[in-house]
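Quick question, first post here. What does this chain look like in 3D?
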Amino acid sequence: MVIDGGFPESGDFVFSSQLSRRSVMKDKILGITGILILSLTMGCGTMGNNFDTSQVRTIQNGVTTQVDVLDRFGPPFKEGVENGRVMWTYQFDVWSLIDTTKSKDLVILFDDRRIVRAHRYTTSGHE
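> Answer (accepted):
Ran it through. Tokens below.
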């Protein structure tokens, strides 16, 4: 007499095993995909605040005021003092593992009357 103890038949067992292998393979693929996406996003970043570079040419030494600059570019990324004069820096940098680093900087020095005394704009990479 054979009593059925609820064990799967041998054909069912192989099928179960195949499903288990597919599940493991799917998990591995998802894991590798996740690691790749994480690596790419961890290798990218920005620093500073983006600003409208088309407005740089409107700055005139001895004419443009601090209020004009604030209206055109917003608050500076950095504020400092050089030789007793206020200096504002606008900076925006972007880096990535899959692309070249891009950077743009605008440094503005104001006189005692809060008028632009000097300014410098530099960039690297494509805008």
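The chain has two domains: 9-42, 45-124.
Helices lie at 10-42, 66-73.
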